Amino acid sequence: MWESIVSGFTQLLQYFYLLTEYLKIPNYGLAIIFFTLAVKSVLFPLTAKQMRSMRVIQELQPKIKAIQEKYRDKPEKAQQAVMNLYKEAGANPLSGCLPLLVQMPILFALYQALLHFPFSVVEHTRFLWIPNLAHPDLIGLPVLVVITTFFQQYVTSLTTTGKIDSNQRMMLYFMPLVIGWLARSFPAGLSLYWVTFSFLGIIEQFIIKRYVRIGREQSVSNEVGRSRG
Predict the structure, then answer these.
(1) Radius of gyration of the chain from Cα atoms?
(2) Are 36 and 193 in contact (CB under 8 A)?
């Protein structure tokens, strides 16, 4: 089963490489960027739903605190009341994990696909300053991994909660450094995927933020219209 998934990712990368050949710019780095763009597009609805749900949960926090205070001695009743509140608001507290759960198998499969990738034209494994995307890049890409991961987390936190608390602040600085350090041992192609995915994620956050704001303004406008009618 897993070997079939890895083989499927290898085929997908080959198709995107053929696309770069068709565009007269044959390069495996560009193929990885096109592949990342496709993955991000497929995951966009899931990410948008996650962001909306997290934003709603954040807005419900005053009501949740009031419920917990009201049922301080009855935790089961408090939990049930909170779940009812989530249901009425259309929010799912587990939705925040879904994109990560989908993303992890993609990373592992892509890692294994790149380790044994049958590059048909070795010269086309060179991308920008990287001599071969199948081998680790020790400095340039790991630094970009740190920078893009940091800014994606920063923008995501501001989009969902509107602030960065002390717990988030520690993860905000710590996680990019860990992932950047690990990137020194990845095939450069996987690091390129991560950098592109994070960069697209930053753009995606601005789009979702605008989408959520427009949706909220329309909701308020509808409520005002109903109250006047």
Answers:
(1) 22
(2) yes
Q: For the residues of 37-68, what is the DSSP string, one character each?
A: HHHHHHHHHHHHHHHHHHHHHHHTHHHHHHHH
Taking the CB of residue 23, how many other CB atoms lie within 10 A of it? 11
130: β partners: 127
Distances (CA, A) of 13 to 18, 106, 139: 9, 13, 25
Q: What is the pTM of this model?
A: 0.77
- CA 56 to mean position of chain CA atoms: 19
Q: Give the span between the Cα atoms of 90 and 84, in whole angstroms.
A: 10
- The string of pLDDT tens digits covering residues 10-61 is 889 899 999 999 999 999 999 999 999 998 888 888 887 777 777 777 777 8
Q: Please provide residue 127's backbone torsions phi and psi, each rounded to the nearest 5 degrees.
A: -145, 120
- Rounded distance, CA 168 to CA 156, Å? 11
Specify whether the CB–CB gap between 50 and 96 falls below 8 A: yes
The CA-atom distances, in angstroms, between 187 and each of 61, 88, 116, 137, 200 are 43, 46, 10, 7, 20
